[in-house]
């Protein structure tokens, strides 16, 4: 019994570590696109016809397209500007994927009655879908507090 518990703990640690590493790599690789997306999301835009007619009251949008935004961020902040907010992003995605990997394996083990990956492949589409949904919900709840911090830091331009 002791060996089985040790094996389950080792498997949970492997799942957690694999999920955290996968999340860290994917977050770091996609950070530049995330920074650009957030800059578009947080810039103020005139929203009604009346405000569009009063163009002299508004500056033109700072970020107007992917290429222009990329050049603007690089010019103002350098290459590291594309990774602004990446550390809080890692604090979001690494726990998210770690929790997701671990909970997915545990739920599939529960549903199939076995911890073997080949038995998990035999699960019905219903149980497989339910397992993924439950893992995603658990990961979201576990990592959500870091999302606000990531968004705030990534949306800051210069000056801070």
Key features?
mainly alpha; Mitochondrial carrier fold; 160 residues; 7 helices; 74% helix
Structural description of this entry:
The chain is mainly alpha-helical and 160 residues long. The chain has one domain: Alpha/alpha barrel (Mitochondrial carrier fold), CATH 1.50.40. 74% of the residues lie in helices and 0% in strands. It contains seven helices and no strands. The protein has helices spanning 2-42, 49-53, 66-77, 86-112, 117-120, 125-143, 145-155. It is elongated and about 65 Å long. It starts with a helix and ends in a 5-residue tail after the last helix. The model has no long low-confidence stretch (mean pLDDT 82).
Percent range of helical residues:
over 70%
Secondary-structure-based class equals mainly alpha
Nearest-angstrom radius of gyration?
22 Å
Largest sheet: none
The top level CATH class name:
Mainly Alpha
SSE topology sketch:
Elements: H1 2-42, H2 49-53, H3 66-77, H4 86-112, H5 117-120, H6 125-143, H7 145-155
Helix pairs in contact: 1-4, 4-6, 4-7
Short description:
74% of the residues lie in helices and 0% in strands. The chain has 160 residues and is mainly alpha-helical. The chain has a single domain, classed as Mitochondrial carrier domain (Mitochondrial carrier fold, Alpha/alpha barrel).
């Amino acid at each position: 019994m002791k060996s089985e518990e040790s094996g389950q703990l080792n498997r949970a640690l492997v799942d957690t570590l694999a999920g955290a590493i996968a999340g860290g790599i994917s977050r770091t690789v996609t950070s530049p696109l995330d920074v650009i997306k957030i800059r578009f999301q947080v810039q103020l835009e005139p929203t009604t016809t009346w405000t569009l007619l009063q163009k002299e009251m508004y500056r033109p949008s700072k970020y107007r397209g992917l290429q222009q935004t990329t050049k603007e961020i690089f010019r103002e902040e350098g290459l590291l500007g594309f990774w602004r907010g990446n550390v809080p992003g890692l604090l979001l995605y690494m726990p998210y994927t770690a929790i997701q990997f671990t909970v997915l394996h545990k739920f599939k083990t529960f549903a199939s009655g076995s911890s073997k990956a080949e038995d998990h492949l035999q699960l019905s589409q219903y149980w497989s879908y339910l397992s993924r949904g439950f893992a995603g919900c658990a990961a979201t709840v576990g990592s959500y507090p870091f999302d606000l911090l990531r968004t705030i830091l990534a949306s800051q331009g210069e000056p801070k």
